[in-house]
Every structure is written in C-alpha cells, then in structure tokens.
Amino acid sequence: MELRVLALYPDQMNIYADRGNILFLQRRCEWRGIGFSCAGAGPGDRVDPAAHDLFYLGGGQDRDQRMVAADMVETKREALASAVDDGAVLLAVCGGYQLLGHSYQLGEERIPGLGLADLETVREPGPRLIGNAAVRADLDDGPRVIAGFENHGGRTHLGGDARPFGEVVKGFGNNGEDGLEGVQRDNLIGTYLHGPLLPKNTWLADRLIALALERRYGAFPELELLDDRMELAAQQCARRAALDA
Fold it and tell me: Using alpha carbons only, what angle is made at residue 64 by residues 58 and 69, rounded to the nearest 5 degrees?
C-alpha cells in the first residue's frame, strides 16, 4: 500500500510548523512499511482528483490567502470537490480551513472560498483568538480530546448544513462564542488547531491515513500499533497546557 499525499500551496500556506503534519504522516507510514509519496501543487497547477488520496492545505497570513484564493478557486476547486465527493481525505488548517468556506470577509474585501463546506469567515472587531486549546472531536469511532494551538483573527460561523469538527473544551474555537471548533464533511476536516496538529494527536493522524488508504484499496486497514509513548506524552503535555491555562 502507498499513501499518496498532495500538499496545496506548500510554499505559500505553511505557518506555525504546519508542514510537520505531512512529515508526521510520512513517518507513521514508514514505521509500518507503508509506501508514501507527496507532491505539491502551487499557483497555476492543475489537480488530478484521482492521483492522490489525502490533500493538505496549511495556514498562512492574510496576504498569502489573498494570493492563493483566486487561483485555487479557478484552477483547483472542481478537482478538489470531485476528490472529496469520491472519499478522499482533505485536511485544512487555520487559513486553509477558512478557504474551505464560501468566503472570508476582510473589511470591504471579500476573499472567495472553495465552497466545500457551509461556512463563512469574517474579520470582526476584537482581539485575535490565541492560545492552547482542547477540543472534543468525534470521527465516528468515539469521542477523543484533540490538543493544539490556535491563533486567528477571523471568526468562522457554520451554516445549517455544516457539522463541527468538535466542541471546545478549552479555548476559543471557531469564533469564541458558540463553543464549536472546525468543520467536517465526509472525510474533509477543517480546524484552527496548529502546533502542528498531528504529532500531538496520533489517533487523528492514523485515522486520516486509514481513511485515505481505504479510498484507494477498498478496505479499511487495520494499522499496525506503534510505540507512541513519546507522542502520547506530548499530547498529555499539550492538553495540560490548554486545561491549566
């Protein structure tokens, strides 16, 4: 088996070490003898929805989002929508998460989104939402607490057709008001949690690997258990940092 990953705008959308999420996926595969390939798609590049099973879009500054948003809608939206509808995994973090929705309103400027999830983001008056966070999430195999770090000025509001990634245990979440964090739709996940996210939450990393492999090979794989003592310690430390804040 081989996990086939496509990083979207890896040079423009990479902040808070989010690229470490891809490295962690690679290591989890290598330790199990699973093949791993990773390609990048930048401005102007077209995407083959059948060539990859896990798509990744990291976070970026507002200027980076402005730069990639129009290009992504023009050159990649149809392919990404097709891939998601066909069961591919799409993980988007912070700025990437905001671009999954219909738009991101920055003052008088409206940045277009992919429209893959029913949500809108607005830069509203008030401080940035910053700090360690803990989220109770459920990906159909039981609730787990996800630990991470958030830092965003935009407030995201889910529409009626959107399902949150989880409920805020500690932190701000989508907007600091409704107690919800992120979004999920089939195998698409959007979240504000940086850190990077996956090394602190091995369960989530393995879940994404298994879902992506299932898409290509037709059966949900039983992944070999790994010695995760160090990763679990990191997760517990991150949870304490959030809950004791």
Answer: 80
Could you tell me the two tokens for 184? 């999920």
135: part of which helix (H) or strand (E)?
strand 129-138
pLDDT tens readout for residues 124-170: 888 999 999 999 998 777 789 999 999 999 999 999 999 999 999 99
Residue 87 carries which DSSP code?
A: T
Task: Tell me which amino acid residue 189 is.
Answer: I
Beta carbons within 10 angstroms of residue 159's beta carbon? 12
Q: Is there a cis peptide before residue 196, judged by omega within 30 degrees of 0? A: yes
pLDDT confidence band for 245 (50 / 70 / 90): low
| Its pTM surpasses 0.90 | yes
User: What is the spatial distance between Cα 167 and Cα 165, in angstroms, rounded to a whole number?
Assistant: 7
CA distance linking residue 71 with residue 87, whole number of Å: 24
Edge-first strand listing for the sheet containing 166-170: 143-152, 129-138, 166-170, 180-181
Domains in the chain with CATH codes: 2-243 (3.40.50.880)
Query: Which residues form the catalytic set?
Result: 94, 194
